[in-house]
Amino acid sequence: ANSQNIDNVNSILDVNSAQVVGTRVVDARCDDAINSGDATTDGVIDALRDAMITHGLLAAA
Predict the structure, then answer these.
(1) Considering the entire predicted model, what is its pTM?
(2) In the chain, what are the domain boundaries?
(3) How far, in Å, CA of 5 to CA of 28, rounded?
(4) Strands across the sheet with 13-15, in order?
């Protein structure tokens, strides 16, 4: 993996096609419907997503 020290970023920063704003990842897919085909799995994924949004770790856009 490539790594770089980034100081004074004054533009949009994308990491693997996901926009990064501070420590938050902004990705439009974050609010997609969860449909794994299993209600338990969907519930776990939804709870994890809600927790990450609540704590400011990700945003839908």
Answers:
(1) 0.55
(2) 13-59
(3) 26
(4) 13-15, 18-21, 24-26, 58-59
> Six-digit token pair at 25?
């990842």
**Cα separations in angstroms, 1 against 5, 6, 9, 13, 46:** 13, 16, 21, 17, 30
Q: What gap in Å lies between CA 6 and CA 30, rounded to an integer?
A: 25
Please identify which residue in the block is written with the tokens 């990842």.
25
3-60 tens-digit pLDDT:
666 666 566 777 787 777 666 777 777 888 899 999 999 999 999 988 988 888 887 6
Q: What is the 3-state secondary structure (H, E, C) of the chain?
A: CCCCCCCCCCCCEEECCEEEECCEEECHHHHCCCCCCCHHHHHHHHHHHHHHHHCCCEECC
